[in-house]
Design brief:
Elements lengths: L16 H9 L4 E4 L9 H9 L7 E7 L8 E7 L3 E2 L1 H8 L5 E2 L2 H8 L16 E5 L8 E7 L2 E5 L1 H8 L2 E3 L2 E2 L1
Parallel strand pairs: 3-6, 6-9
Antiparallel strand pairs: 1-8, 2-3, 2-5, 4-10, 7-8
């Protein structure tokens, strides 16, 4: 997208906790719906292909376990779909010694979303969030809108502000 986003988008696409949060905040964004193939190996790469955009602009939402008990010990890492999460870098950004990938059931329970449709926005519980530095190379980025087959496009600074996230290099190429 070349032109900046100009206002909240209530057009095509489902209403999800993410879109409700965006609409309430007044943050400009665009909705992008595509056909989801249930056999897709990578939800994020599927979105990039279906929407015809550079995979470097599409970010996946991963939950990590900080150790300890309960959902309050989870955090969110947002990284490009074409890369992998560097667990050591994520731990450093979150101020802990180590992190591991969260149990999928715990991730779904904590966020209120299903795997492959977890949005970093509008989660049931506010979790510490780290947004990969590469997002700030783009005017807008794409993240899950809260359902498989539905992405939202917004400015990375708005994503960081909505999630109260921190910027850090947390990806491995």
């Amino acid at each position: 997208m070349n032109a900046p986003l100009t206002g909240s988008s209530r057009g095509a696409g489902p209403t999800t906790p993410a879109t409700l949060c965006l609409d309430r905040s007044g943050v400009p964004y665009e909705r992008h719906v595509y056909h989801h193939d249930p056999h897709a190996v990578s939800f994020g790469l599927e979105a990039a292909d279906a929407l015809g955009i550079d995979p470097a602009r599409v970010f996946k939402t991963l939950l990590v376990d900080l150790g300890g008990q309960g959902a309050h010990r989870l955090a969110v890492a947002v990284v490009p779909v074409a890369g992998q999460l560097d667990l050591k870098a994520a731990a450093a950004a979150l101020g802990v010694k180590t992190v591991s990938m969260a149990n999928p059931v715990a991730a779904e329970r904590s966020t209120g979303y299903v795997i492959g449709g977890i949005s970093p926005i509008g989660q049931k519980r506010a979790l510490s969030t780290v947004l990969d530095e590469s997002a700030f190379d783009f005017e807008t980025v794409y993240v899950s809108g809260g359902r498989r087959g539905f992405d939202i496009e917004l400015a990375p600074d708005d994503l960081r502000a909505l999630t109260h996230g921190v910027r850090a290099t947390i990806r491995r190429a």
